[in-house]
Amino acid sequence: MKAVTWHGKRDVRVEEVPDPAIKEPNDAIIRVTSSGICGSDLHLYEVLGPFMAEGDILGHEPMGIVEEVGSGISTIKPGDRVVIPFNIACGHCHMCGMELYAQCETTQVREHGMGAALFGYTKLYGHVPGGQAEYLRVPEAQFGPIKVPEGPPDERFVYLSDVLPTSWQAVEYAHIPEGGSVAVFGLGPIGQMSARIARHLGHRVIGVDGVTARLEMARRHGIEVVDASEVSDVPGEIRQRTDGRGTDSVIDAVGMEAHGSPAAKLAQTITGLLPDVVAAPLMSNAGVDRLAALNHAIDSVRRGGVISITGVYGGMTDPMPMLRMFDKGITIRMGQANVRKWISALMPLLTDDTDPLGVMDFTTHRMPLEQAPEAYEMFQKKADGAVKILLKP
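Given the sequence above, the corresponding structure tokens read:
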């Protein structure tokens, strides 16, 4: 089969690799019909090379048709149309019983002290082949796959794999009071959907970004925006719009890709040039993130407010302004999305023909799998208005 494989910084290729096969009774094989490129994939493309191996298959946002199931599977069958959550959870361990599926004890990567295994995402998260491919082996398929109706196009459902549950959790974790306000930093895929979900739930939303296409998309969906390329003091602008207090909550949907921190960008670049044997422990034990967005979030939230972090950070000793956070009485909540926890809330919105979350106005580019290298470069450079790219095997 053809698959998107990693070969180094900014070097992804489409290659012929062996077809996946059933290995365990709870495995399934799906034929992939759509697979998204995620902002987290850019971390592999740019920063997290020390935790990758040449030839790793990328991708964690797939959906498709069930081709084969193991002997232990009774919940899905060949021919079913399914979306595959990006994290791999068993559904029956202690953590899964608490609906903390991202911490599943069956698939936890204890060797590296990490949570549940993820598709297509480094040695730190289990080294599981990903879904930017023609076929995908799905472990723990007795629980993971989400059956979706026939008929509507893939774009209606594929974002259940990551974007929608991650965004819904970001809003839930933000704990916005009824009729309250939230600032969303970063209007990439997660920020866009977080903003739409918060607005759908009745909150005032202020979205922050500096990319024209992203600002325009947010405006189309009724989001008030701040253009960071034109405003020198973003937190000051947010406070000015909220009676000097700041918003009740802030969602940081940026993470380690934040702009505005030249020293941290240099640290990331230098680390990426080191041999893996040196770079991996450095990244595991040092502060290598660009924290501009998080610092802006801390300055923008009102006293006693809540910050929800859904953007991925990778450093272990990143400096935090603890005095300012303590003085303002800020609550911070974060973590990988517990995908299956949020599906029951999301599914009615996706089967509603009025499309309340605007999922049919989300994909900006649909490209064949063979063009994955061009797609990655476009997404990384935010070129040609790219907000969300789907690969079609």
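The CA atoms of residues 165 and 339 lie 5 Å apart. Try to locate this feature in the token string yourself.
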